[in-house]
Design goal:
The chain has no helices and 17 strands. By secondary structure, it is mainly beta. It is globular.
């Protein structure tokens, strides 16, 4: 009688993968040692992330992985150097992240513009809260919802353009929808603030991802339940 040996690892389940990973321009998990300013970009084309002020990795809070990116609202933000794949052009895109606010006043989350925290709002894409309400910049216009974030709570935030319509989703629910044909040609990207240094985030960001050329969400959805895949 022949004995057939079956290697149990041969059929082990593979981890989750992202079919749009090749389109990911930026992927920050915010993992690392408490207090570290070494922030890794896990996208296919890794970029240098510079921590300004006291922006750093913190193990005090996290959505996934035991750490996140911490900002205290006073001079803290991250910068990504200009590059072609940070320019979103006129095509679809998805900018998404998890955010946790210490205060529900004005908390900028990100801005793509002609300079870091550029107050000369020339065609930026930007998202965050203004006066406590969720809002976005698209082109030269600002739109504000009538919804306020809960403090000390993780929120999934997705800023998505699909076929000329830009939407803001919070926790999978659409809050804003607007026609948007803007050419987002600028390449300077800021995380942890928008417009100026008086609109900086007081809180945390985890799993920040930009997908260029892909609208990952086109209607209400269930937010991710695991970290974004690295492949």
């Amino acid at each position: 009688m022949s004995i057939i040996y079956i290697n149990p690892y041969r059929f082990a389940a593979a981890g989750p993968t992202d079919p749009d990973f090749a389109n990911v321009s930026l992927l920050l998990h915010g993992d690392g040692t408490n207090g570290s300013t070494t922030i890794i970009d896990s996208s296919p084309s890794p970029k240098t992330v510079t921590a300004v002020g006291d922006a750093q990795i913190s193990t005090a809070q996290s959505k996934f992985g035991g750490a996140s990116l911490a900002f205290d609202g006073s001079g803290d933000y991250l910068t990504i150097p200009p590059s072609v794949n940070m320019s979103l052009g006129t095509a679809d895109f998805t900018i998404e992240l998890w955010a946790r606010f210490n205060t529900a006043t004005s908390n900028g989350l990100f801005q793509l513009s002609s300079g870091y925290l550029n107050s000369q709002v020339r065609g930026p894409a930007a998202g965050g809260t203004n006066g406590g309400f969720w809002g976005i910049y698209h082109g030269t216009s600002f739109l504000q919802s009538n919804q306020v974030p809960s403090v000390n709570t993780w929120h999934h935030v997705a800023y998505v353009r699909s076929s000329g319509i830009t939407k803001l989703y919070v926790d999978g629910v659409q809050l804003i929808s607007v026609s948007d044909s803007t050419n987002y040609a600028d390449q300077y990207f800021t995380i942890g603030g928008w417009y100026s240094n008086i609109n900086l985030l007081n809180g945390y960001i985890d799993d920040f991802r930009i997908t260029k050329g892909v609208a990952r969400y086109v209607s209400n959805f269930t937010p991710p339940t695991a970290p974004f895949p690295d492949a």
